[in-house]
Each structure stands twice: as C-alpha cells, then as structure tokens.
Amino acid sequence: SGMPKYVVQKTLLALNDHEKSVKGARILIEGVAYKKDINDVRESPALDIMSELISLGADISYHDEFVPELDLNGTQYQSVSLSEAELKQSDCVVIVTNHSALDVGFVVEHAKLIVDTRNVTKGMDGQGIWRI
C-alpha cells in the first residue's frame, strides 16, 4: 500500500536530478491496468501515483493499450499513443504496468527520463533510468 508514495518520491528525486520541478512537469504513465495484459484498473497503483503527482502540480498523461479511457477523480483521460514525439515531449516516463507488447527499447531510446517500477529496463544502459 506504500508503494505508490514510494514511486512518487522516486519520481520527484529523478526529476530533481534532471533539474526539473514536478510542478508543471509532463509525466507519462506507462500502463494503468492493475497487472500486465488486462484492462482492469481496480486497485491499480497507477491511479494513486497519478493522483499524487497531479496534486503536486504535474501534467499527467498515460499510455495503456488495454485501457483506452480512464476516469480519475472525475476527470476523463484518454490513452495517448506511445510515439517518439510523445516520449520526447514528456519530462519523465513512469513505467507502472509492463504489458507484453511494451517496446522498452523504444521507450529507452526516446524518453529523457524513466522511472522503472517493473525492472523492464534491466541490462539497458541509460543515465536517465531510475529503477525501483
């Protein structure tokens, strides 16, 4: 139950290390489903992570091929495409759910900063990768 707060703390530290404040930061959440390759968001830690980051002033978007739209605290969100442009525009990508189809190499290649909560970047080099 404490993991979402831990992920938020790591995200704040990662942003700070890249001289970026969480307030106004564009953060892309990769995967909002409760577990990989399903569309169920009930009890998903991603929801708590997103809510906390929003309360701190972050500009949140998400990508999840299994969850095309999401209602979070009365606000509607739509899954964005995981494109090169989207990754480059994001100040940080937080990998919460590691769906099988996730092209981790593509994310590592184009994202400025990654907080990896699933260790999917293991063995990959990158100064902007923070693993939990």
Q: Portion of residues in helices?
A: 25-40%
Radius of gyration: 13 Å
Specify the overall morphology.
globular
Main beta-sheet strand count, sense and barrel state: 5 strands, parallel
Largest sheet strand order:
2-1-5-6-7
| Distance between the amino and carboxyl termini | 15 Å
Number of helices: 4
Strand content: 15-25%
Mean pLDDT: 96
Quaternary organisation? single chain
Topology, number of strands: 7
Question: Helix-strand pattern, N to C?
Answer: HEHEEEHEHEE
Structural class: alpha/beta
Contiguous uncertain segments of 5+ residues? none
Give structural notes:
This protein has 132 residues and is of the alpha/beta class. It has helices at 3-17, 45-55, 84-89, 104-110; strands spanning 26-30, 59-63, 69-72, 75-78, 92-95, 114-116, 129-131. The strands form two sheets. It has a five-stranded parallel beta sheet with strand order 2-1-5-6-7. Strands 3-4 form a two-stranded antiparallel sheet. It is globular and about 35 Å long. The two termini are 15 Å apart.
Brief characterization of the structure:
This protein has about 130 residues and is an alpha/beta fold. The protein has helices at about 5-15, 45-55, 85-90, 105-110; strands at about 25-30, 60-65, 70, 75-80, 90-95, 115, 130.
Q: Which descriptors would you attach to this protein?
A:
single chain; about 130 residues; alpha/beta; 5-stranded parallel sheet; 4 helices; 7 strands; about 20% strand
